Amino acid sequence: MLPYVRKDPLTIVQGCTFLHTWEWLAGGQPVDLTGAEFELVAKASTDSNAVLIHLTTDNAGVTVIGNAISLRIEEDITRAYTWRNAVFDLRVKWPGSEPRRVDPFMTGRFEVRPGVLA
């Protein structure tokens, strides 16, 4: 499975809640995401060691309802962002017996815009 590569960045406004949702369709049909776990990691560059964003289904940064995947970052967290650009990978771990299959879901960029009220 090849990841979807976003051409446009996901934009975070500093000091505001970030929320973005996708519906996963395959062949025009909803994908059953029951039991799937997601993890997103963002860094300044692919070779950087410092993690700027880490969202998972375990830490409630990623939620899954039906075939919809939502990313959420609270305003108190985005207010502290001093960086402006990052790259990210979002991957899915499918339910089943161990070792569970892990696939790339999406890759792309984040952009943080300074907020006037941040």
Helix content: under 10%
Number of helices: 1
* CATH uppermost class: Mainly Beta
Q: How would you characterize the largest beta sheet?
A: 6 strands, mixed
Terminal CA distance: 39 Å
Order of helices and strands: EEEEEEEEEHEE
Class computed from helices, strands and strand pairing: mainly beta
Number of separate domains: 1
CATH fold type: Immunoglobulin-like
CATH architecture: Sandwich
Mean pLDDT metric: 94
Ranges where pLDDT stays below 50 over 5 or more residues in a row are: none
Radius of gyration: 15 Å
Q: How many strand elements? A: 11
State the shape. globular
CATH superfamily: Immunoglobulins
Percentage beta strand? over 45%
Describe the fold and architecture.
With 118 residues, the chain is mostly beta strands. The protein has one domain (4-113): Sandwich (Immunoglobulin-like). It has one helix at residues 75-79, and strands at 4-5, 10-13, 18-23, 25-26, 29-30, 37-43, 51-56, 62-65, 68-73, 85-93, 102-113. Strands 1, 2, 6, 7, 10 and 11 form a six-stranded mixed beta sheet that branches. A three-stranded antiparallel beta sheet has the order 3-9-8. It has a two-stranded antiparallel ribbon with strand order 4-5. The longest helix has 5 residues, at 75-79.
Give a nutshell description of this structure.
This protein is mainly β and 118 residues long. The chain has one helix spanning 75-79, and strands at 4-5, 10-13, 18-23, 25-26, 29-30, 37-43, 51-56, 62-65, 68-73, 85-93, 102-113.
